[in-house]
Write a structure and sequence with these properties.
Blueprint: H1 10-44, H2 48-76, H3 78-98, H4 102-130, H5 136-153, H6 156-188, H7 206-217, H8 223-251, H9 255-284, H10 288-307, H11 316-327, H12 334-340, H13 347-375, E1 381-382, E2 385-386, H14 390-411, H15 423-426
Antiparallel strand pairs: 1-2
Amino acid sequence: MTTHRAPLPRLAWIVWGIPAFLFLLAFLHRVAPGVMAKDLMQAFNASGAIVGLLSATYFYAYAGFMVPAGLLLDAYGVRLVMTAGSAVMGLGAMAMAAAPGTGALFTGRFLVGLGATVTFIGALKIAATWFPPSYFGTLSAVTATVGVLGALAGTLPLAALIGLAGWRGSFWIIGVLTMAGAACCLLIVRDHPPGHAGADAPVPGLRAVMGGMAQVLGNPHTWPPFLAFFFLYSATGNLMLWAVPYLKDVYGISTTQAALYFSATSVALLVSGPLTGYLSDQVLKRRKLPYTVLTASYLTLWLVMVMTLGALPLWAVPVLFFALGMTNGAFVLTWPLGREVNPPALAGIAVAVTNLGGFLGAALTQGPVGAVLDAGWAGAMAGGARVYPVSAYRGALGVCAGFVLLSMLMTLLLKETRGLNIYHQLRGQAGPAARP
């Protein structure tokens, strides 16, 4: 019998589209300090370390609240939790816009990260309840791609907005837009389609969730993908923060032009993320091999970038950024690897734990990398902001290249799953591998 996907009501796409749009805004917030780093230095007489810590504050909030966010979404539903989280994110943006000093600025940034925590998980929960199971894999990839679009919006479009409205005005506009999205979520989004039986499903208790997390953390095979993502995103997050200031300081171009050149990385990720997942699932039927090869390629490009800082012709810089984005697609394999070495019943917790690795990496390294940049500062200023020499950027980005090397080494410890759940095989139990 031939099967096919029946057309879905437009309402399902609208109900999913609102949380997806809020996730786009959350991703825009994530990368925004990279475009406005010089403005923040000027406004608050801030050093590179302060800007790095400010950016990292988002990741501290995101990482710390990730598990509670999942519990709240399960207990109270996407509509109410995402409305509240998005409102907190919008208020945080407004607090940053009005911040008279660094204390209020950091508080606003923390609120932004806190509210953003529920957006990705919420969008996936809507996809799971409003769409047939055959759509979930596709919608997961599409939702992640929407996040990359948010990163793209945080380059040239955000730089253009800052040019028109200033960095404070931009935060006001983004904050109002986020609050409007929260209102739409409250008015339009529903946790289940009409007649859905899942509304009465039991909510997992805190003891069950913490027990499952302890089991995942106690599994030694969880840590290679966790650490591979930790070091990989440590480098990527710092590149997102310092690429635009580097182009401004070294090549003397405007913020808008620098953001345009760096947007090549996000454009590449729009292709490389889904392509990497497809090749891993359908062509290679491998996880470890593409992760290792792509990470080794990413490392090679990082070394090229560090060795040629300031020496490449300007036209070649976006080409290098695009190549970095294409090889950085390795990160999408982190989640299936974490899931496939843990018990099938703990798939959600396993994905959350391995995902946590990347956010901790960004949180713990952006401040120190900013301090490395400060250590190489020669005292030059422009418009009230520090101007760093090529040698300072080489030191900071050289540290990031070291992170990529550690990520590549961690991939050598990964277990090849071939897209199957191999937890029982790893435990030495007989029986075929289970499909995830």
